[in-house]
């Protein structure tokens, strides 16, 4: 039985709902990025080492990545509105607890709660886009969602640094947590799950879920998307969320204002490069994974220059390195586009969850290893780390770039062979510049 449509799709109500949900996503990105400029203050406040400082963001990302698949199931069962509300409550409570935490253990627990709330937001917004907008509108709105969400990172890089300087730790984080209360009211009043009179509730048993995840993971396209995400996303995340600011200020001797400005400029560049990459991906679907590899190479070259430069690298080279790194964020979105070509429509949520895990796994491992290397180089805390210590620690990234590129090229070959076998003509279609969308709902060839 088809549900009765009671609201227009793609009209004013849809845009209002999307804007409210988008505001929640911007706030989630802000909370996720807030430790980027507060890392040095946090190390002093809690008297912790680099390894312990990395624990904040690593644990937050572990929680985020680990919840992707379960959140997808809960989303299908309870809808976006409920998940946005739960996510807001968790993020608000976690950030408020973080504001008043005086112990390292308490602060880590608070960041874990923030990560749990963050994990529920993006997929909830994307589900609203899918339901409330026309098929021809959805790709543009999805792209706008990702790009606009980066405003949260800009606010975390600039205004948050100013507030920390003017108001101090507790008042700053308490003030930012209060934004969640305002958005809670907005979600309750304005967000609706569906334009239809009723929405079917999907109850998925854990055993069936586990089996379905194994099936989706067995698809080489899912792994191609995951390794593409793994290769390109982690460097930008590590730089923006934790180690970029200390590297610039403590290592390269930049001013706090200069470092904050560069972090904001990186976010602006990510928007520009994202628009360029989106056009390239649309015109060259056969070369999508090569586009990802090209962006990774573009990151590696200036990073090598900065790390091998005798003493402090010149400003222009650091800026080039930072902008190249920022391009990794938009490049990682190609992983979701790759997975879509290989995945039946009813499995795209689980496939996207597995793709999303790739970059965040690489990010948290890189963050942790950088902290370990810094502590092994100098055990006196943040103030004792020299430029040489930071250069050695940042070299950890090469391990993950190499692994990611090798696996991306490996699964590119497997993925193309899979498509050629299961969907004859699909590879030739992509070579001709025409996108291929998986037409089936089964698990053939997996």
TrEMBL record:
The keyword NADP does not apply. Pfam families: MFS_1. Keywords: Membrane, Transmembrane, Transmembrane helix, Transport. InterPro entries: MFS (IPR011701), MFS_dom (IPR020846), MFS_trans_sf (IPR036259). It is found in: Cell membrane. PROSITE patterns: MFS. Residues 17-413 form the Major facilitator superfamily (MFS) profile domain. One of its GO terms (molecular function) is transmembrane transporter activity. CDD domains: MFS. This is MFS transporter. It comes from Nocardioides ganghwensis.
């Amino acid at each position: 039985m088809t549900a009765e449509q009671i609201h227009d799709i793609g009209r004013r109500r849809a845009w209002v709902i999307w804007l409210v949900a988008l505001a929640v996503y911007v706030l989630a990105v802000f909370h996720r990025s807030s430790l980027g400029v507060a890392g040095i203050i946090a190390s002093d406040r809690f008297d912790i080492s680099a390894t312990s400082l990395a624990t904040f963001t690593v644990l937050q990302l572990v929680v985020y990545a680990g919840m992707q698949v379960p959140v997808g199931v809960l989303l299908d069962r309870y809808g976006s509105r409920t998940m946005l509300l739960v996510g807001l409550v968790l993020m608000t409570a976690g950030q408020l607890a973080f504001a008043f935490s005086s112990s390292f253990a308490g602060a880590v627990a608070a960041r874990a709660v923030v990560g749990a709330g963050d994990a529920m937001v993006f997929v909830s917004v994307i589900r609203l886009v899918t339901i409330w907008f026309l098929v021809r509108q959805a790709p543009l709105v999805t792209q706008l969602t990702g790009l606009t969400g980066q405003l949260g990172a800009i606010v975390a890089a600039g205004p948050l640094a100013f507030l920390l300087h003017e108001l101090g730790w507790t008042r700053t984080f308490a003030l930012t947590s209060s934004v969640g209360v305002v958005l809670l009211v907005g979600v309750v009043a304005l967000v609706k799950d569906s334009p239809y009179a009723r929405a079917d509730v999907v109850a998925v048993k854990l055993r069936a879920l586990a089996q379905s995840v194994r099936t989706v993971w067995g698809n080489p396209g899912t792994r191609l998307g995951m390794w593409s995400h793994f290769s390109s996303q982690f460097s930008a995340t590590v730089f923006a969320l934790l180690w970029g600011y200390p590297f610039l200020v403590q290592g390269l001797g930049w001013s706090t204002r200069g470092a904050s400005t560069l972090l904001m400029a990186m976010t602006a560049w990510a928007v520009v490069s994202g628009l360029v990459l989106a056009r390239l991906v649309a015109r060259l679907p056969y070369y999508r994974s090569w586009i990802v590899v090209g962006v990774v190479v573009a990151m590696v070259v200036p990073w090598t220059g900065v790390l091998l430069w005798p003493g402090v690298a010149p400003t222009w080279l650091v800026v080039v390195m930072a902008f190249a790194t920022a391009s990794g964020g938009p490049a990682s979105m190609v992983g979701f586009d790759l997975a879509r070509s290989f995945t039946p429509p009813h499995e795209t949520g689980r496939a996207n969850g597995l793709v999303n895990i790739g970059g965040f796994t690489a990010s948290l491992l890189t963050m942790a290893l950088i902290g370990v290397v810094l502590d092994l180089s100098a055990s006196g805390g943040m103030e004792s780390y020299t430029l040489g210590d930071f250069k050695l620690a940042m070299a950890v990234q090469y391990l993950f770039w190499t692994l990611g590129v090798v696996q991306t090229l490996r699964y590119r070959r497997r993925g193309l062979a899979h498509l050629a076998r299961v969907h004859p003509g699909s590879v030739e279609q992509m070579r001709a510049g025409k996108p291929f969308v998986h037409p089936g709902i089964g698990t053939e060839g997996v």
